[in-house]
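Lay summary. Proteins are chains of building blocks that fold into shapes, and those shapes determine what they do. In this project we predict the shape from the chain. Here is one chain we studied, written as its sequence of building blocks.
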Amino acid sequence: MARDSKTEISFEVDREECAVLDGYCNARGVSRTAVMRRILKEWSTLELSAAVSIIRTTGVNPMRPGTDRD
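And here is the predicted shape, written in a compact code that computers can read:
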């Protein structure tokens, strides 16, 4: 069985943004972590889909050896 790997993310947000998040969490009975994970998962799914579409359309393989990636 593959071990689930996780990375901790820590960042600062405006007080007003945090208040909105906390209000949502209190009203729904969910944790900040659950909401932020869902937001990040939905965003990353959309970004991955967009990247795959660009790669397929342009025929560019960013993982190909010799590309100019830093």
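What the prediction tells us: Residues 34-58 form one domain.
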